[in-house]
Amino acid sequence: MKTFEKAIVGNIEVKNRIVRSATHESMGNNGRVTNKLIELYKKLSDGEVGLIITGFMGFAKNDNFSPKTILINNDDFIPDLKKLTETVHNNSSKIVAQLAHVGSQLSYSPTGDVFAPSDVIDPINGITPIPFTGEQIKELVNEFGDAALRAKKAGFDGVQLHGAHGYLLSKFLSPVYNKRKDEYGGSLSNNSRIISEILKNIKSKCGYEYPVWIKLNASDFGREEDGFTYDSFLYTAKRLSKDGVDAIEVSGGTMAGKFTPCRSKKHEAYHLEYAKKLTKEIDTSIIVVGGFRKFDLIESVFEETDIDAVSLSRSLIREPGLIKRWMEGDKKDAECVACNGCFNPDGLVCFFHLEGDKRKKQKEIMKLFSPRD
User: 148 exposed, middle or buried (CB, 10 Å; 0-12, 13-18, 19+)?
Assistant: First the structure.
């Protein structure tokens, strides 16, 4: 079965083609790795997940981190991060650190000024952000590179840039939110310039062979027709492929769009066609995420397309041992019902694993995250 074959994905050798897509765990403590987080990653790697992409890690001076975000903005964090990578490597799985700047798409109260490409009101929270200056952008590019070097020193097999879902780099790409008139806005080339500069900065600091991936929206599925669409995605993916990005994870949607990144169960493999099209355009490794719950469907991706890996998120929250179950012959669909009740500020956990008051409390929070489609 091709799903369980060894492969090279984004310049990383993996034991199988299943990736845990980046999922914010809310398990940090003052920026540091906790035993709770290590235990989660142990369960995933015990469960034969081939590669784990971490929940987004914070590093930028002008970002607003949630209290439970893992940080990688200081060398002091490296020893704790090593515990995480060693836990995963002990089970022969691989691990990639996702680097992100939240920008203005905050679901919690900011602790300082909020920055974005332009002063466009964020539809999620009503915040009017402060536009980055050109000098601040240059500093941010360097901060990405420094964070990637720390990830390399901590044993991560690569890094992934979060360029999707309405966070900062995603907003730079979108003409709805990027109204800049300088070299970082006003055209597809200028809108994507910051990502190209980040990629080059990381490669210069970590070495050209160090894997750098990116998560990109195939479309924002926005309510504005002039937003980030498939054509914009295709241009950006081609540019980054030429610049040396090692893998592109195809995703889509924002918290303000027609579709959020996490849709209801009636949707299945909802970014697959975009990813298949992209394989015809570039040679870079392609990973696809979005509503995969059936083993036979995943196997068909590898049998019938040139996509390199399939990534899962919510299914692995309910069943961290899902891949091992499939490998051992039980090919029943993933148990996840796509309710989004797993996005818990007290720590990532399936809603159906909660009891009593904890379940009651989470029901109220679910109203904010439940799929709207």
Answer: buried
Separation of alpha carbons 284 and 279, rounded Å = 8
Residue 237's alpha-carbon distances to 59, 304, 323, 369, in angstroms, are 25, 22, 29, 29
The Cα 371–Cα 278 span in angstroms is 27
Number of domains in the chain: 1
What span, in angstroms and rounded, lies between the C-alpha atoms of 293 and 357? 29
Q: How far apart, in whole angstroms, are the C-alpha atoms of residue 130 and residue 100?
A: 18
pLDDT, average across residues 210-215: 98
The answer to whether 215 and 249 are in contact (CB under 8 A) is yes
d(CA 262, CA 243): 30
Distance CA 165, CA 156 (A): 23
Phi and psi of 277, rounded to 5°? -60, -40
Residue 363 has pLDDT above 90, yes or no: no
Using DSSP, state whether 153 is helix, strand or coil: helix
Q: How far apart are the first and last CA of the chain?
A: 34
With beta carbons less than 8 A apart as the criterion, state whether 160 and 215 touch: yes
Asked whether residue 317 is assigned to any structural domain, the reply reads yes
Q: Give the tokens for residue 356.
A: 């009593």
Please report whether residue 297 resides in a domain. Answer: yes
**Verdict on whether the full-model pTM lies above 0.90:** yes
Residues 6+ apart with CB under 8 A from 23: 55, 313, 317, 348
How much is the average pLDDT of 209-234?
91
Angle at 59 between CA 58 and CA 62, to 5 degrees: 100
Domain membership of residue 117 as a residue range? 2-337
Report yes or no on 348 lying in a domain.
Answer: no
- Nearest CA among 174, 357, 141 for reference residue 256: 174
pLDDT for the residue numbered 369: 62
Is residue 358, in this structure, part of any structural domain at all? no
Query: For residue 138, what is the domain's CATH number?
Result: 3.20.20.70
Token pair recorded at residue 157 = 């097999």
